[in-house]
Amino acid sequence: MCPYSKTSNRGGTTTNILVTGGAGYIGTHTCIALIEAGHTVVVADNLSNSKRESIETIKRITNQEIPFYEVDISDRQAVERIFETNHIDGVIHFAGLKAVGESVEKPATYYENNLISTLVLVNSCLKYGINRFVFSSSATVYGENEVPFVETMERYPTTNPYGETKAMCERILTDIAKANPLFSVSLLRYFNPVGAHESGLIGEVPTGIPNNLMPYLTQVAKGKIDDLSIFGNDYPTIDGTGVRDYIHVMDLAEGHVAALTYLKKGAHIYNLGTGQGTSVLQLVKAFEQANGVTISYKMVPRRSGDIACCYADVDKARRELQWIAKRDVITMCKDAWRFEQNNLHQEV
Ligand code: NAD
Ligand code: WQD
Question: CATH for 16-196+246-273+312-325?
Answer without folding.
Answer: 3.40.50.720
